[in-house]
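Quick one - inputs below.
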Amino acid sequence: MKKAAVAAAAVFAVLLSVFVFYDGVLNKTSEADFFSMKTYVSAKVTGYESDLCTAEIQKLVENLDVNILSRTSGNSLVSRINKNGGGELDLQTAAYFSVLLDVCEKSGGAFDFTLGGVSDLWNFGSAPSIPDEKALAEALSHSGYEKISLSEGRLSMQDKAAVLDFGASGKGIVLDSVKAYLVTRDIRNAVVSVGGSTLLFGDKDFTVGIRNPEGNAGSYIAKLHMGEGCVSSSGSYEQFFEENGKRYHHILNPETGYPVDNGLVGVTIVSESGLLSDALSTACFVLGIEKGSALAAEYGCTAIFITEDKKIYIEGDADIVEITDTTYSYGN
Amino acid sequence: MEIKLFRKWDIAVIALIAAAALAFAYMSFSKSENPQAVITVDGEVIETIDLSAVREKIVITPGTDPKVVIVAENGEIRFESAECEDKLCVNSGSLEKGGDTAVCLPAKTVITVTGSDVDAVVY
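Output:
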C-alpha cells in the first residue's frame, strides 16, 4: 500500500517535472523592443527558439532599414537608386517592388512610391509646415510611378528627379521578410510590430485592437479576431499639425500633393501579405470607401474604413471585426 | 529476497523533485497582477512603476536628448513635456491600462503599461 502510494507520487513528480520543463522550454517567450525604420519596433516570440528569433529579427529589420529601404542612410539601395536614377535589385527586392508597381497601377496612382520629393516638402516626422505652392507643383511634376520601370532586376527612372520613398510600404516589406525568416524556425507564435504595422505569426487565435482615432495610443475602438496574417492602418490622427486653424495630416493625395480630405480618419487592412496590408491601407485611404473597397476586394484583403462621423465600413471578412467602442457603429 | 522498490533517499529525492516542479509551476503560472508602467530608453528598462501603488506624484527625467519629463500620479503615467519638435509623445496623453503605450522617437523613450487584453494595437 505504502509502496503503491510512493510509486504513484514518483510517477506524478516525474510527469509534472517533464510537463513543467517542456512548457518552460517550448512556450518560452522572448521580447525585443528597438528603434528602426524611423519608428518603434517590438517583437514577441513564443517557442523553443524564441531567444534566437528576437535577436535575429532585430538584425534583419536593422539590416533592411540601413542597407535597403532607408532614404537617409547614404549607402542604402534606395538612396543609391535615388542618386543614380536607377539601379540593380536583388531578386527579393525586385519581387517586392514589382508587387508595389502593381498596387500603383491597380489603384490608379492612389498609392505611389515616388512621392519622396513631395513628402520632403511637408517634412512630417520632424518640423512639418505647409509647403510653398510652386515648390510643391515642381516636386509633383517629378513624381509618378509611370516614370519607373522594372525589367530583368533593373529599376530605371525616366525622370531622374523622381524620389523613391517607402514610408507607406517599407514596414510591410519588413514584416514579409520577418515572416519568411520565422517559417524556418522552431517556434509556436510571434507578434511583430513595426510602428503600427503588425505581423501575427503562428497557430493561435490573435486579438488585435484598432486604435481609437480620438484616444490615447493604446486605446482601441474595435477588436479583430484572426489567425495568422498582417494588419496595417493608415490614419489621419497619426502625424499631423495645425496651421491657421486647419489640420494637415500626413496621408497625401498623389494627385494634388495635399493631405487627403474625404471624411475618413482611418483605414485598416488585413492580408496574408505585410506589403499588401501596408500599401493598401494608404491606397484605400486615398481612394475612399467605394473605390477603396473595390481595390481591397481585387486583392482578396479585408478593409475596415473609419469615418469622421464614427461609422465603420467593412469590405471582406466582416466576421473578424468586433466593435468595442459603442460610440462607433456599422456603416454598411 | 525482497527487492525494495524505493529506499529512503529515493523518496527524499522524489519529494524534492516534486516540490521544485510545483514551485516552478507556481512561478510560471502566477504572473504579476497590477499594471506596471515600464519606461525604456533605447531598449533598456530604466524604471518600472506599479501604477496602483503611486501615492505621491513621481517625476522622472531619463536624461535623454531631447529632454523628456515623465510624470506618474493618480494611477496614470504620461509624458509631461518633451523638447522634441513633433510632441507626439505628449499628445499620446495619460496611460493607465494594460497595453497603453506612448513613444518619443527622438528621445528613444517608451512607456508601456503591462497586461494588455489584445496581442497588438494597430495605428
